[in-house]
Every structure is written in C-alpha cells, then in structure tokens.
Amino acid sequence: MTPPYKPAAIHIDNDDEDDGFYSIGFFFNESDNAPRHLGLCRDIEENPDEVYIEADDQIYGFYTQSASFDMHGTVLTISLADDNRFYWSDLATVDIDIPQEDINSILSCLRSIFDIQVQ
What is the pLDDT averaged over residues 85-89? Predict the structure, then answer.
C-alpha cells in the first residue's frame, strides 16, 4: 500500500464552464511513484453513463462505470471495481491527501462525477 499522494495543485470544473461537464484534476510534484496528473471527469451530455479517468496521458486513460470514491478525514480514495488499474501502481485504488480547505468543493464535484454509480 502506498501512502496518500499530496497534490501540489487541484483544478475543479464544477459545471461552471460547460453545461453538464464536471472534472477534477490533481497535479503532483514529480515522484518515483506518482503520476504528474490524475484527472477524473464526466460529461453528462455526451457520455452520461461513464466516468473518464486519465493519468499523465491519454494512453493511460479509460472509461468506467465501476468506480467510486470515499473520504476518510482528509484522505480521498478513488477505487476501481472493474479490470482497469492505475498504470503507475497497477492497483485498483489511489489515495490522495486533500487540503482541509478544499474538501467541500472537491466532494461537491466528485458527487457530480460519480452520481451514476449504483454498485
């Protein structure tokens, strides 16, 4: 198990710029075990039934209907429940340590991205 990654920056698009498009990007400092960028998004208009997850490059991106998130304290866990894995760790989960002041806005965006989940 890897320790939670600490983002150097976080970008949230909570449907402010495009109707029905929600995204969150976590940017990390260079590390041997972390991607430079991890993005999650959902486009309600064009692809309403799936979440798109991409780390670093499109070649590592994938769509899924079997992902979820959980928050324990300041640690956000993204979990995959299908055959997809995060390329840098080959694991189905990733933990991200969120700054306390960003938790509410991040949770709001993640709820919009993941509300399709019924598993």
Answer: 94
